[in-house]
Amino acid sequence: MKKGTFKLLACGLVFTTFALTSCSSDDNKAAEVPVDPTADRWITVAGAIMQTNPGDGDGGTKVFSVSKKDAKNPDVSINAYDNGEPVQSSRTARLQSSVDGKTLFNITYTGANGGQFMTYNVNGGKNFVQSGQTVSIAQYAGASPRWVKLFDGDKTGVAVNVTAPVVVTEADGKTYKHTRGTATVLTLDFLGIKIANYEQYQIPLSPAEEALGHHVFRLDAPTLNKAGNKLIIGTWMRKTNPATAANESNFERLGSKSLVVDYPSLENPKFITSTVGFGDTSGYRSFNSFVANDGNIYQATQRDTKNGSYILKIDQNNEYDNSYVFSLDTALGVKGSYIDAWRYVANGIAYAVYHHEGSDQGFVARIDLNAKTAKLVDGIAYDADLNFGQYQGFVVDGNEIYIAVTPVGKDGNIYIIDSVTGAVTKGAKLVNKPGNHYIGVF
Q1: Which among 193, 99, 108, 102 has a CA at the least distance from the CA of 149?
Q2: Where residue 133 falls among pLDDT bands split at 50, 70, 90?
Q3: Which superkingdom heads the taxonomic lineage of this protein's source (predicted)?
Q4: What is the total count of domains within the chain?
Q5: For residue 256, what pLDDT is reported?
Q6: Residue from 333, 331, 312, 332 nearest 323 by CA
Q7: Counting beta carbons within 10 angstroms of the beta carbon of residue 170, is it exposed (0 to 12), middle (13 to 18) or buried (19 or more)?
Q8: pLDDT at site 13
Q9: Complete DSSP assignment for 262-295
Q10: CB atoms within 10 A of CB 6
Q11: At CA 358, angle to CA 312 and CA 378, rounded to 5?
Q12: Residue 33, in any domain of the structure
């Protein structure tokens, strides 16, 4: 194990923090907890620029912010590509926003400046001012770290990474032994402007699983449990063919796995395994698990070609509750459902952007975690070119959720959904460019 705590360049950055609404500890029924909206916040949209192919989003990211009033006004037009400000990243930026919408957090992804952490003060329109110094975490978490902020009042971010897995043989140099990479889990202290802690370790699966070639390819989407003493980190699994040492594209998947580490020490890594889901739990470029009002963690799965996406439940003992079975295929009446991104709102209600078998066309679903039901959200302009594969950001403000909906190369809109009534409001127009699409609201 390798760890350290480092003081970084002080940037004089001031963060405004907010206490999160307390949640019921009732494991059986989510308490109806009222959620207060933020009185005055910016709504920032992010647009991904085409690099080579339409919708690849790898040409950079531009942002533009408006007031909540303007975001809800369909007569307002937002053109982030002509009027917005670029944020630093060689490819698609991975952005997070503060609760009040007045700060954007960014860690650049790949390239010469990959792994650099920075913040922007949001001042409306294209006025984004980088605040303080840029801090690199690349030497610890690589130039392409995955990261999210914790729901702890804008105090902490967590970056994770796994080095390229290496095939290891027995002493004879021929017999396959296992495939492993070295994992890094790193916490960023937003308030103190420092790396609070980091740990590096190999994270073996069971001997039987490793003998078959199973290994962790990627970590992502860390979530802090209700007790504040464990991080639950999603995994993306792959498999080596022991006979050829080649990566297998099709294989019999293990049950869905997460890595659990102590918090804030980041020590004592261990895997937990679901017997309900068999997909990955890493998500892609957004949050993938949330602590609900009942105190439990709900987690989506991806890349299960046989069963589609599931919502899994992790109880307050930090173990999978295998009595909780929620298949999105069953709930929606589709095959091959795939949750591209999703967001918990309150009182057991969440919203997911997803596609399903036979098409990459995206849709929006309202999910009731308590009833284990899901339904397509009406009132949104669906289009064959709507693709949420790179989608990142939702804004939850009180009981409302803001979603950016733009088909690749076509104009779209911000939509605001009332999670209590289900009412959908078409908001500001999002002006697009050929090959581009908007990837989130922050």
Answers
A1: 99
A2: confident
A3: Bacteria
A4: 1
A5: 98
A6: 312
A7: exposed
A8: 35
A9: ETTT--S-EEEE-SS--SBS--SSS--EEE-TTS
A10: 12
A11: 70
A12: no
| Residue 290 region by backbone torsions, left for phi larger than 0, else alpha for psi between -120 and 50, else beta | beta
Tell me the pLDDT tens digit for each residue of 27-65: 444 445 667 888 889 999 999 999 999 999 999 999 999
Q: Which amino acid does the sequence have at 4?
A: G
DSSP result, 348-369? TEEEEEEE-TT----EEEEEET
Structure tokens given for 108: 């650049």
Angstrom distance (rounded) from CA 182 to CA 196: 20
Q: How far apart are CA 352 and CA 339, in angstroms?
A: 6
| Residue bearing tokens 């194990």 | 1
Which CA distances in Å does 16 have to 97, 100, 152, 191? 12, 8, 12, 9
Phi first, then psi, for residue 45 (nearest 5°) are -105, 145
For residue 191, is it within any domain?
Answer: yes
State pTM to two decimals: 0.92
The three-state secondary structure class of 408 is coil
Q: What pLDDT score does 191 carry?
A: 84
Torsion of CA 371, 376, 379, 384, to 10 degrees: 160
Proportion of the chain above pLDDT 90, given as a percent: 85
Task: Kindly tell me if the per-residue pLDDT of 165 is higher than 90.
Answer: yes
In a domain, 32, yes or no: no
How many other C-beta atoms are found inside a 10 Å radius of the C-beta of residue 368? 16
Task: Return all residues near 383 (Cβ < 8 A) that are at least 6 apart.
Answer: 361, 407, 410
Distance of CA 279 to the CA centre of its chain: 16
List of residues 6+ apart from 171 with CB closer than 8 A:
none
Amino acid found at 346: A
Beta strand 424-430 with 77-78 is parallel
- Give the residue numbers spanning the domain of 12: 2-27+43-441
> Is residue 98 included in any domain, yes or no?
yes
CA gap 83, 85 in Å, rounded: 7
Confidence check: pLDDT of 5 > 70: no
| CA–CA distance, 136 with 198 (Å, rounded to integer) | 14
Q: What is the domain-level CATH number for residue 87?
A: 2.130.10.10
Radius of gyration of the chain measured on its C-alpha atoms = 21
